[in-house]
Amino acid sequence: MPNELNTLLARQYQHTLGQVNETIVVDPSGLDSEKMAQFRGELRKSGLTMEVVKNRIALHALKDAGLSPLVTHESARHVFRGATGLIFGADGAIDAAKFASRWLAANRETIRVKGGLMGRDVLDEAGVAQIATLPSRAELLSQLAGGFMAMPQKLAATMQTGYAQVVYAFQALAQKLEKAG
């Protein structure tokens, strides 16, 4: 029978992580107290959160939640071993992966990426590295908006060029008629 503390932790995980369906899993054991404070501050600036979890309790508490594909996957034994922190928030796993990648580039040996979940896809370390190279949701939306704005601009430029050619043709005809006549 679980003790009171474990029951409270399970409820907290269900409350905090119950609706999360995209995350990057890291091992934060390389962070000392100073680096941990800096890490969490940078997370907040990026709109992200990290929840450090007890593995057995998290596996039990989250098996019916949004993270169930990760918790029930065969790699869960590897991902939920040792110190485990779940990074989530912002626009999902891509933003969390980009953050982890940036942090590791500047602070080697402080965290280790263990895996992640993006939608229903369970990611290993290589998968997390791959999605860190993808454009974020905000970048994709700006590219899409730029594409939509470019179409009317190209149409206007094409029409303006056509009208200019007609005007030049009439001017040339008028000059020719003046010389002839």
How would you characterize the overall build of this protein?
The protein is α+β, with helices and mostly antiparallel strands. The chain has two domains: 4-134, Alpha-Beta Plaits (2-Layer Sandwich); 135-181. It is built from eight helices and five strands. It has helices at residues 4-17, 33-45, 55-61, 68-72, 76-79, 93-106, 125-131, 137-180, and strands at residues 23-27, 48-53, 84-89, 112-118, 121-123. The protein has a five-stranded antiparallel beta sheet, with helices on both faces. It is elongated, with a radius of gyration of 28 Å. The mean pLDDT is 88.
CATH topology of the largest domain, by name, is Alpha-Beta Plaits
Q: What's the domain count? A: 2
Largest sheet: 5 strands, antiparallel
Pattern of helices and strands: HEHEHHHEHEEHH
Strand order of the largest sheet: 2-3-1-4-5
Features:
181 residues; alpha+beta; Alpha-Beta Plaits; 2 domains; five-stranded antiparallel β-sheet; 8 helices; 15% strand
